[in-house]
Specification:
With 71 residues, the protein is an all-alpha fold. It is 66% helix and 0% strand.
């Protein structure tokens, strides 16, 4: 509900993907599904939500970069 909390949360997910190694595999599918939801919900590109949306996209990129085995 809160864009600031959502922004911080998705940023943290990207950082976890960078440092968690194989432990990330257990949650990868669920995380990617939730990030997709955050990126594609109808108001994702509204002024209040754009920073969270961009951080969600960045988190997906970090998953691709650092967790490619789960894709």
């Amino acid at each position: 509900q809160n864009p600031g909390v959502r922004q911080a949360s998705v940023y943290g997910i990207g950082e976890v993907a960078k440092v968690s190694g194989e432990q990330f595999r257990a949650i990868a599918a669920d995380v990617l599904m939730r990030l997709t939801t955050a990126i594609t919900f109808p108001q994702a590109r509204d002024k209040d939500n754009i920073t969270a949306t961009e951080n969600a996209m960045s988190a997906v990129g970090k998953i691709i970069q650092f967790q490619s085995a789960v894709i």
